[in-house]
Each structure stands twice: as C-alpha cells, then as structure tokens.
What we know:
With 308 residues, the protein is of the alpha/beta class. It has 8 helices and 13 strands. A 5-stranded parallel sheet has the order 3-11-8-4-7. It has a two-stranded parallel ribbon with strand order 1-2.
Amino acid sequence: MxxxxxxxxxxxxxxxxxxxxxxxxxxxxxxxxxEDPIALEVESILDLARNKFxxxxxxxxxxxxxxxxxxFSNHAFYESRLNVVPPAHHEPISIPPISFVKVxxxxxxxxxxxxxQKVVQLVEELVQxxxxxxxxxxxxxxxxxxxxxxxxxxxxxxxxxxxxxxxLSRLFRAMExxxxxxRQGIFVKNIENVQGDERDVMIFSVGYARNPAGxxxxxxxxxxxxxxxxxxxxxxxxxxxxxxIVSSIEPDELxxxxxxHEGPKxxxxxxxxxxxxxxxxxxxxxTILGQLRQMPVSVGGIEAANTA
Length: 308
C-alpha cells in the first residue's frame, strides 16, 4: 500500500471475517507506539478502513443469473440495493431457481444419513442433465460433509463393481471437471469453507432433524455464534443458476425464539422463503421479503431499522 498514490480496499463485511488463527496480536508494551488505538478493536483492515474513509457500495450482482437466488440476501443483508442482470433466457435447469426437497431424515452421530443419500442421488441426476451444470454441495457441519463425501466415493465404487462404465465415467468426469485451467469439479464443503466458491447448481444439506427418540435436534453450532448470519449469507449465495435445499424438517419446526444471535432466525426465514419459492407461492415470498426489510441490521456496531 505504501508504494501507491491511492489505495482501494474491497471487501464484504456481510461475509466471513478473517479467521482468528491468522490475527496478529499486539503486545501491551507496543501500545504507546500505536498512532490509532481503534486498530486494536477491529477484526480486519476492511473494518478499520470503513471507520476512516469514504465508502462506495456496489449495486450490481453478477454471480446469480436468477433474481430469486440472491433476493433473500439482498433484503436481509444488503438493504435491498442489489440489482441482478437478467438472463437472456431461462435455462430449463433454472426452473424453479430454488427447490425445497423434503426427506424423512434422522439426526444420529452428528449427521443425517438419509439426507446425505438424497444429496448423492441428486448429484447423480444432475450429472445426467443436458445442461451439464457444475455442482457444489454445502453442509452445516463437518460430519455431514464427510458423510456425503464418503457416500460419493462409495457410489463410484458401486458403479465400478457393477461395470457401469457409462455411469462411472459420467460421475467421475463431473467430479474431476476442469474448464481451462480452473477446477470446476463437484465439491462438498461445510459452511465455514465455501466462501469464494461458486457453481451452477448448489445443493444445501440442512442436516437438522429429529433423533431416533423423536426429539428435535438443532443446536445451530457456529450459526448461533456472533456473525452466524454472515455464515448463512455465504452459504446461500454460491449458486449461479439453481439451488436445491434438502431438509428433513419443515421450517416451522425450528424453535429459534431463544437464539442468542440472528443466524438461526435467518435460517428459519430462509427455509420458509425457499419452500414458498419451490411451491410457487409468490404471496408468501413477498411477505417474507417484506419482513426482512423491517429487521434490525447492524451498522457500524449500532442497531438500526432497515427501511430500504
């Protein structure tokens, strides 16, 4: 930065902040040499610059070709200011842009086997689609991610043993796909590791479900920590053409009234939004987006009403 006459800092404070592991700690004995003590109170250079310099917020979103894919985040996080470049035509795979797929999964050993099996089934269906989309999978926790990965590897082995060369080749090519020098193969990641990635079709495995005893299990984990809403924002904005939500619960089954942070509440609203879109219930979609516009949002550490 010191070599330039001007400097532009670009970033998004509605996505994940730097991981604490890489933060440099300032010793107390260095305090007298700090020209700006506020530098000790911020998480990143982006936050520091936001308190010092003029901001210019972008108003166009280019990843998602379908408005519905970004609309929830647009209202919940970006003050409804984002515009989407409309596609010249809607590809068949994009209709509807969000699908809500309900399964009868069970939460056991920190994962949901039935839901993971459904994800693998959807992947197999997508690799046969004439649109030939790139595919990504996002899960809420590490154990679910590892389970989906294991089932994908097992499926490859099943196709190999069955001597289904066509099916094996199709799935393997999709997993190892490259476009130019960029890897575009199928990935399976948990919510913490997907920032920066994008695919044509994203499959979102919710995971939460009733346990074998019938008790609802939804601890929300990192989603219920400070910044949990940002984690959700990252997870639901990776798709370029379509998003498929695989869920073992209906949104109304989530009890979020006692949640410490906004993440679980936003998740419940997002699932309601996805289900309404999937059913073509435009009235419910409009209602949910209207509620998001009235939610309090954090601006520079101060709570304010979002009336954009």
